[in-house]
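Appendix B. Chain record.
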Amino acid sequence: MPYLMKKGLLYDLEDAFDILMDYHVIFIGEEHESRVSHHAELTILKGLAERDSTLVLALEMFERDVQDFLDAYLKRKISENKFLKLSRPWPNYRKDYRPLIEFAKKNRMPVIAADIPRRAAAAVSMANEISSGVLGEDRVYLPKTVHLKSKEYFKRFASSMERMPHFAPMKGMKVDGLYKAQALKDAVMAASVEPFLDRRILFCCGHFHSDYHLGVPYQLQKNHPEIKVTVIAMASSVETLRMEDRSRVADFIWVEE
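Structure tokens predicted for this chain:
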């Protein structure tokens, strides 16, 4: 049975959902290949939707330039095959993210294609610069501000790059450029939800984009400090940490027993 843990206390899902209703934006930091992560996302999506008919879903797994195709599919204007052909879904879409999209479609729920196109992030990594010139046609997604001054986020990002295997594609690239691309991704994802800040948002992303309230939550709250944000992490991603350190990673830990 799943629970949400907060500072060592276990809450059953009914109580946990009631607590989550106090927040404007709820981040789930997933482990991309984890079945537990995807079960948590669908369970939390359904639980919140039962309590809030205006809920919005935001996904890192789709990029900003496919929003029109995603909207068309949700409104039943194009077939699923055409949607998948046009939207560059992740390889694990059918088993892991399709249930979220189909639930949203059935319930007429808006879904935000949140991430910047991969080509734009790659261009920033190579140029070590965030600018309209570097982004080219993708400059339309450039937020007014990309906050780059979090020393903690840079340190954690640089450390994650050091731990990559030597054959990883990004291993030989400069950390400064990679960090700018990472921060740009976070800032674009934060900006993607701004039109919906008058509604409750469930945001699914890789856990590095939300751990410690850094990444997307950091970018969002720098621009909107009044927004109440909470972060959920998976137990498997914090199990090596002491209990007091786990509460720094996320406000809630998803636990399955």
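Further analysis of this model is presented in Appendix C.
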